[in-house]
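User: Hey, quick favor. My workstation is busy. Could you predict this chain's structure for me?
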Amino acid sequence: MSKPYPKYDEEFKKNLVELHKNGKSQIQLHNEYGVSHSALSKWIKQYSEVKMDDNTIITAKEIRQLLKEKAALEEENLILKKAAAIFMQSSNKD
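Assistant: No problem, here it is.
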């Protein structure tokens, strides 16, 4: 039977990423906090910040969320275009 994975809250994850950003290696963080290397790597990617041209800061997690929202909006837009084309065809027949 496999061992259950511990749950870490967002604040803990962000704190470890900040420690890594300030010079602690993943090995040091693993030894001090007992977090797996794969989890640390994932969190570092997820919570690393990118500074935009307008000085706003965005994380990889926020970028993924924005991409999901963009895809949903593009799908809605496509559906609306198809519906508009159908309505235009039916109004031209009248």
